[in-house]
Amino acid sequence: MADEKKFVKEITPQSEDFSRWYIDVIRKGDLMDYTPVRGCIVFKPDGFELWERIQEAMDRRFKETGHRNAYFPMLIPESFLQKEKEHVEGFNPELPWVTEAAGEKLEERLALRPTSETMIGHMYSQWIHSHRDLPVLINQWANVFRWEKRTMPFLRTSEFLWQEGHTAHATEGEARQETMQMLEIYREVVEQVLAIPVWKGQKTPSERFAGAVETYSIEAMMKDGKAVQAGTSHYLGENFAKGFDIKFLDRDNQLKYVHTTSWGTSTRLIGSMIMVHGDDRGLALPPRVAPTQVVMIPVGPVKLREKVMERFDPLFDDLQAAGVRVRADLREETPGWKFNEWEMRGVPLRLEIGPRDVDKGEVVLARRDTGEKMAVAIDQAVEKIGELLEEIQENMFQKALSFRNDHSHLHINTLEELKGHITRAEKEAKVAGWVLAGWCGEDACESKVKEETKFTSRNIPFEPPVTKETCIACGQKAQHTVWFSRAY
Amino acid sequence: MADEKKFVKEITPQSEDFSRWYIDVIRKGDLMDYTPVRGCIVFKPDGFELWERIQEAMDRRFKETGHRNAYFPMLIPESFLQKEKEHVEGFNPELPWVTEAAGEKLEERLALRPTSETMIGHMYSQWIHSHRDLPVLINQWANVFRWEKRTMPFLRTSEFLWQEGHTAHATEGEARQETMQMLEIYREVVEQVLAIPVWKGQKTPSERFAGAVETYSIEAMMKDGKAVQAGTSHYLGENFAKGFDIKFLDRDNQLKYVHTTSWGTSTRLIGSMIMVHGDDRGLALPPRVAPTQVVMIPVGPVKLREKVMERFDPLFDDLQAAGVRVRADLREETPGWKFNEWEMRGVPLRLEIGPRDVDKGEVVLARRDTGEKMAVAIDQAVEKIGELLEEIQENMFQKALSFRNDHSHLHINTLEELKGHITRAEKEAKVAGWVLAGWCGEDACESKVKEETKFTSRNIPFEPPVTKETCIACGQKAQHTVWFSRAY
């Protein structure tokens, strides 16, 4: 036990080293483990359950909007990847290849899918012939591979889990509408379920998905001020339709290319959630995704435990019956040790009952988000807990929103000002955050910002808090107002 | 349309060529498609939805029995596979290998997992130290690869989807109990949800999972009399614990190896369900898994359609509100064409409404399983449909059970009798079915049966309908009563 107590104490403070803090909390929170395969992690049960709840929330909304799930082969023939030029250039450097199987060398190498536009494009070309075959609205839950140099658990791993939607439409308008609809679903799930505020917006051309006409994203701010691209939705135009010859006979008897979209979110959402809500005491999980929403801990002298358990057990059953994900910690450790442990694991609410609480007909509730403790009449506990879980969910979103707003800088207008801001933040060990900047639209200006500050364009928000007039790099008239920041 | 009408007519009769019948119905039923990757198929939405319902039914039961989901890397280092001798011998011939990634040759080849005992064994050795860490009860939903020579959609594909449970226990007794518990869950889901009767039993040593101490299975009879192993549960003893050094400090302060189990079911259940229930008219899907449970079709002259739709639309809404998976077919095709189409797709119930039905306040219901048609008062339709779906589910199970019993031969006692039986069946173009036979326990006798008849041992049923006294091959005293048949 002594060891484990030390573990809890050993979480590196965020202010000291955010990356080490992150690794500490996900390991001590038992969410993942490293494996001997380069960049591949195990999603342990508590980590995987977060993904299951994200899946549930996403999948329901996909189906409500008419999408159905399917499953396509993981292995992609090399020749498929070649069919869309930008696509292969974008993904080729990161691909793992199967070159032999069942004792024989393969005639053509097979890539482990980095994404499935090519395989699905090929199949759609077989399935789509007439306007009556459209739209095709399919999603896939799958593992994907990107053999990247630097990996980070959940945020960037060689193998990760995701969903990828792939749709085909008769018209550009309908495909563009689909792209926006799915981006909005992503925003809704990420804000409402994961309590992470995001900016919806358009990626600049340099940050587009390889092969897309337009890429849209939702972008979230971590507690170190860096950004995570939390979901993307692409309007692919006719690019893949041309590469894979996906044509249909329209009502006007003309043979036309379909317009396709694709959209994805992945297990990096787990990492984002941790970096948005966690603190120096450990994980902090929003009630809607927390594997355990309430942990019940009996307190007081062991010789009075029986008396406590007489109230403890029925309350546990009542909470479970009310659909609360409740867990009882009846281990031998001290209450204090358990409090630390469950705080570290991010459980939103702790419930304590001791002999004196029983006498008073009360229980004590402690919130992970605010640290607040309160006594509640035992016969009102179930109702109160339901309310508190909602309140915590909302409060966690509001806290994240305040943090984001506090670290979003709207009045930096030149590269010099930006550099000064970054230098100041570094000197004072403060979070540099995001900067809203004007951009003339030239790649060169975007590159200049990146080279000189490591800030990259996140997206061009649909509804920027202010509109910028001049390009941060060249001072010319701005065409766009863009979020810039460091990013994962 | 003419084309599609022809398609329906073109289902090869089961009696003519069962394999061709199978391919016809899964393609025309839109469940799958072939791909250019050898032995890999697309699970199309209607096929994948069957898998989603199986997943739902399994996953709920896994969780109710204390298991949690996790996710382990798909790529397995070659050295891991070497650690359990029988295991590597069993799987090595079927493995695809990643040999290069991101432009570089890998130092060690990585196999695409055929199953995950080795990767999970390695991780468990890191996680398990004390008796307090036990039991570990983890399941994984994943894609797996077995590069086999002969493939068949759903039943045997190079890539398939499955769940694999992996548990570790302090004692042999507990591990054996787990093995049996999971086998019983498989039986329950396959019988109650897929309406497929199965025999629970033990595999003979020659048919054991590579590396297991004991393998248990549920075995189902297809309509061509062949068997499908529909699920397996393995007691692995200390084999993998020794290979991967999974030890724990027990209460008695002794360092001991854990006892592990593994158990799996896969997308081959989809294929089994089709081969158990389908007929010459096409698919027949049990209501509990059918993507569409009721298809509603308006009939009668188009000029009276409006009158029909006044009753049609509210009934559709009522059924949906009652949780029935209902679909309306309002296409322009003739009712007769639609009837064929939905019969072919295996929808359990068809609902027709025409103008005369409206006058009488009735609807007509037609059952896929019996062909029976009945008029039902429209205001009782929702209730009646709920009852009928239950009835159809039960009837499909009973039909499959009768078929199985009719083709299970209990009184064949010698190899000569078995050969005679098979020859007779072939001559009369009848289903040879299964044979319950005595077995002395010698591998040589089991092999002899296989070589001379192509009948392989399926399992040693826990509760055989009769007990056999002598070995079918050598005539010596039987140690076991075994199901033999041809198998997929």
UniProtKB/TrEMBL annotation, chains A, B:
Origin superkingdom: Bacteria
Catalytic activity: tRNA(Pro) + L-proline + ATP = L-prolyl-tRNA(Pro) + AMP + diphosphate
Catalytic EC class: ligase
Cell location: Cytoplasm
One Gene Ontology cellular component: cytoplasm
Residue ranges occupied by any Aminoacyl-transfer RNA synthetases class-II family profile domain in the UniProt entry: 38-286
Residue intervals passing through the bilayer: none
Keyword ATP-binding applies: yes
Enzyme Commission number(s) of this protein: 6.1.1.15
Keyword Aminoacyl-tRNA synthetase set for record: yes
Keyword field: Aminoacyl-tRNA synthetase, ATP-binding, Cytoplasm, Ligase, Nucleotide-binding, Protein biosynthesis
Gene3D superfamilies xref list: Anticodon-binding domain, Bira Bifunctional Protein, Domain 2, C-terminal domain of ProRS
Molecular functions per Gene Ontology: ATP binding; catalytic activity, acting on a protein; proline-tRNA ligase activity; transferase activity
CDD domains xrefs: ProRS_anticodon_zinc, ProRS_core_arch_euk
GO biological process, one term: prolyl-tRNA aminoacylation
NCBIfam families (alphabetical): proS_fam_I
Subunit structure: Homodimer.
UniProt family annotation: Belongs to the class-II aminoacyl-tRNA synthetase family. ProS type 3 subfamily.
Record text about domains: Consists of three domains: the N-terminal catalytic domain, the anticodon-binding domain and the C-terminal extension.
The protein's role, per its UniProt record: Catalyzes the attachment of proline to tRNA(Pro) in a two-step reaction: proline is first activated by ATP to form Pro-AMP and then transferred to the acceptor end of tRNA(Pro).
Protein name, per record: Proline--tRNA ligase
Record organism: Kroppenstedtia eburnea
